[in-house]
Amino acid sequence: MSDTPSAAHPAHLAHHFDTVEQQRESSSLGMWVFLAQEVMFFGGLFLAYLVYRSSYPAAFAEASHHLDVVLGGINTVILIASSLTMALAVYYAQTGKRNLLVLFLLATMLLGLAFLGIKAVEYHHKYVDKLIPGVAFSYPGPNAQHAQLFFSLYFAMTGMHALHMIIGFGLLIWLVNDARKGRFTPEYHSHIEIFGLYWHFVDIVWIFLFPLLYLIGLHDAAGGGH
Amino acid sequence: MSVHVVPLRVYFVIFTSLMILTAVTVAVAYLDLGPLNTILALSIAVTKAALVILYFMHVRYSPSLTKLVVAGSFLWLFILLSITMSDYLSRGW
Question: For residue A82, what is the domain's CATH number?
Answer without folding.
Answer: 1.20.120.80
